[in-house]
Design goal:
three-stranded antiparallel beta sheet, Alpha-Beta Plaits, elongated, SEA_dom, disordered N terminus, SEA_dom_sf, Mucin 3A, cell surface associated, 16 strands, 356 residues, alpha+beta, transmembrane helix, membrane, five-stranded antiparallel beta sheet
Length: 356
């Protein structure tokens, strides 16, 4: 046979199973399908994609990974109340609150207030000076000089009054110079405010009496005398312990705090959860907690005990009740059974008696 010419004899020497060729065979042997065409037999039907150089490598199935559920042990963030902040583990409360979520207000507010301002209006007369019209003008040099000198000497006059803070000139008028002025005192706190104010007035008057006895010895200074009743207005104050507590209390809780002066003379603001108040809320087997709705008792071990009252004053063991109920049922059942047996036996005895 000539080169390049293919005969039937040539094809016979190369066994080809016609009709049994698979798509895989055609995909892996392109040369065989092109060099031995048989016009008498149509090519086998195949749904495979046309062969190409890229189809000689079997496709590989990619590995698929199923994501595992997260096993993170991070705690859910807490919602802190009343200005508390979450640090990743717990709520950090402000100084006025406590509790796991900062939901409870503190029982006690320490104000550190130990004194209060009080004022006494009194009158003295400067005997060695003459009143002039310039003293009506508080901006004049004459008035400023007199005021400075008066304050300096009053500091000496009132130095024995505990808590003396200074004086304020109210009015100057003729006669030599009559000076109406306010004496400012920082008085110590006490549970009896009225008694403290009376004591302040008394101390001021006492010092003015001393002025009357030493008024003649005032060379180079202002000479003072005081009238027999120098007080224009007794000691007064704008201080209110109750108002101070309301201002110190956190918003929404002011009505639950009342003032209390400690033994050291310091103002504290207490709630009914404090044992130092007359109407102390005794929670017995629980703890008093101040919520926005007011003081309430939180009973202890609620999973173990029942508390019939609202102050945790009586508790009943759940275990005891659980054991007692079956025993009571058995006891009642025993009574019923015994009653039934007694009646049955009684009826039997009556029947035998009648039969005789």
């Amino acid at each position: 046979a000539e080169t390049g010419t293919t005969t039937l004899a040539d094809t016979a020497t190369t066994p080809v199973e016609i009709g049994t060729m698979t798509p895989a065979d055609t995909a892996t042997s392109p040369a065989a399908s092109t060099t031995a065409p048989l016009e008498t037999s149509p090519p086998p039907t195949s749904t495979a994609m046309p062969t190409s150089a890229t189809t000689t490598t079997p496709a590989t199935t990619p590995w698929t990974t199923t994501p595992k559920p997260s096993t993170s042990t991070a705690r859910p963030a807490l919602t802190c109340e009343n200005g508390g902040t979450y640090d990743g583990e717990k709520c950090i409360c402000t100084s006025a609150f406590n509790g796991p979520l900062c939901q409870f207000a503190n029982d006690v507010i320490a104000t550190n207030v130990s004194t209060f301002k009080t004022e006494v209006d009194v009158q003295v007369r400067v005997t060695n000076k003459i009143f002039t019209e310039e003293l009506n003008n508080k901006s004049s040099l004459v008035y400023i000089d007199f005021e400075l000198q008066f304050r300096l000497q009053m500091k000496t006059v009132y130095q024995s009054v505990a808590g003396y803070q200074g004086v304020i000139i109210l009015n100057l008028r003729q006669g030599s110079i009559v000076v109406d002025h306010t004496v400012i005192i920082e008085a110590p706190l006490s549970n009896n405010l009225e008694a403290t104010l009376a004591s302040v007035t008394e101390q001021v008057v006492k010092q003015l009496e001393v002025v009357n006895t030493t008024g003649g010895n005032c060379s180079g200074q202002l000479c003072f005398t005081a009238p027999s009743n120098p007080v224009l207005k007794n000691a007064t104050t704008n201080f209110s312990a109750a108002d101070t507590c309301k201002e110190s209390a956190p918003p929404g809780f002011a009505e639950y705090y009342s003032p209390h002066i400690t033994e050291k003379g310091v103002l504290s603001c207490l709630t009914r959860c404090s044992q130092d108040v007359p109407d102390f809320l005794n929670c017995h087997y629980g703890q008093c907690q101040l919520k926005i709705s007011g003081p309430q008792c939180a009973c202890a071990n609620m999973d173990v005990f029942w508390y019939p009252g609202d102050r945790c004053q009586t508790r009943v063991s759940k275990v005891g009740v659980g054991m007692a109920v079956p025993l009571v049922i058995l006891f009642i059942g025993g009574i019923v059974l015994a009653t039934f047996l007694i009646r049955a036996r009684s009826r039997g005895s009556k029947a035998r008696y009648r039969g005789q």
